[in-house]
């Protein structure tokens, strides 16, 4: 298919001139305008839909709120969102919030002032009360279970997924099971804590707050987990690690400290990132690229808020 | 410091109302407006600079062109760009091009139509002639050596860096040295090919086109490299792999095929990504997050185009 550069070449004008003709810019001579039009007809050029959409008062910009950009979890979500945006001729406005509430409100305000058509929130810091104040201005899509709320959502059942991971470790003979996570608060963190405590109750195991490891986001955070494990008189024999990259870090530092995996410590990762495959980490596959795609499609769908659950899959490898 | 939510709480109004007051929206009662203003004075609230900038006709949006989002190389560049954008109160408009020329032209057009204040191109597909047609509309910053061109650039000396890697392998006793790369064309690819051929000439070694492996972008691409190596009667004994993630893939598949690293094959990575540390890959450290930061700062600097070289560092580990 001919592109804008081919048209420019055929018409003997610059790309800028073609772009001006496409956008009905006034400063183009009638002669050049005609040459561009002839070239377009000759090679059956299909101009993109921007012009059409702009006339409808749409920006063709979708906002994406993400706490971090360069993290495998959010990277895969963004990949799915971006791939679908390209297909549908939208651009993304990226809001890296570092989980600062004010940044998230800025994103919501851009929706309010029609600077973006819709907003995807990959992970939020603002309360639902604040977010719901902005739903009148355009579609908002969350990546968490928001059934019953006035926004759309694509989600996995965090409670069930976490329970499943714990039960898998239990069935492998583990009694002292701990877990690592990034945030103490946050919807998903709370659901996981609830699943954990419920699991312990059912198994008649005591709750040991030492067995929960917070602030685990990156590879390096695995070091601190292992350091703490080494100081415990009765460390957990299995860990649910809610990020493969952290699991990879724990695995690497365990090797250095001669802790045998899975004999001394079983590790169950989360997400099934490429690193989990490389390092043979048993993990729960969460189809993040696919979730990203669905988040985008819901953002450009102007019908009523809807909710879709995505299912996870256990991938058995060598760390449990 | 108080944020917009604190103000809302103090004034007994919604966040939306605070936002409306900040943006001089007409539909706010005088009573509420006054309550918000009092709360702001009371806690010495500093409104952000958006309003000031908008009045100057700026969008506070910076465009970022990247072929892919979820790739470690571009992920780190984006991380640096995004961190600096947050600090300076800018948002990013992301253009994932998949190296399609038309997508890149769309980004240039957004600069032309003042929908963004500046454009950062992490890696381009368009010729410099096309890009230079758009410099009149706003700052354009490239991540390649663009000295002598009418755009700004932050770059590493690809020719010198590649020569350095080849010479290091040569000094370790290797004669049959190959390399892997993503694109056949592209400025950086051409400079690397030039450095390679020049090196061979100086060393009096024959040029063997089989020793160059194209289309190497992801971990999985390492499989194809190893499969091709296994079929060669006289394979290279050392490879410069211009991406750590590909080097990790080669390393992993070599282990499966019982090719000893570095005895049978020496591997020199590029970038010093976290994976290079995990897998003990000898590599050239390219400070991508820092380069991202500099790209952003150059984009918002409205002075004359400028150029800055960033230096690389050899990290010796266990694969050479």
UniProtKB/TrEMBL annotation, chains A, B:
Domain of life: Bacteria
Record has Transcription as a keyword: yes
GO molecular function: DNA binding
Stored InterPro entries: HTH_LacI (IPR000843), LacI/GalR-like_sensor (IPR046335), Lambda_DNA-bd_dom_sf (IPR010982), Peripla_BP_I (IPR028082)
Keywords: DNA-binding, Transcription, Transcription regulation
Domain called HTH lacI-type: residue spans: 2-56
Cited PROSITE patterns: HTH_LACI_1, HTH_LACI_2
PANTHER family: CATABOLITE CONTROL PROTEIN B, LACI-RELATED TRANSCRIPTIONAL REPRESSOR
Name by which UniProt lists this protein: LacI family DNA-binding transcriptional regulator
Organism: Niallia oryzisoli
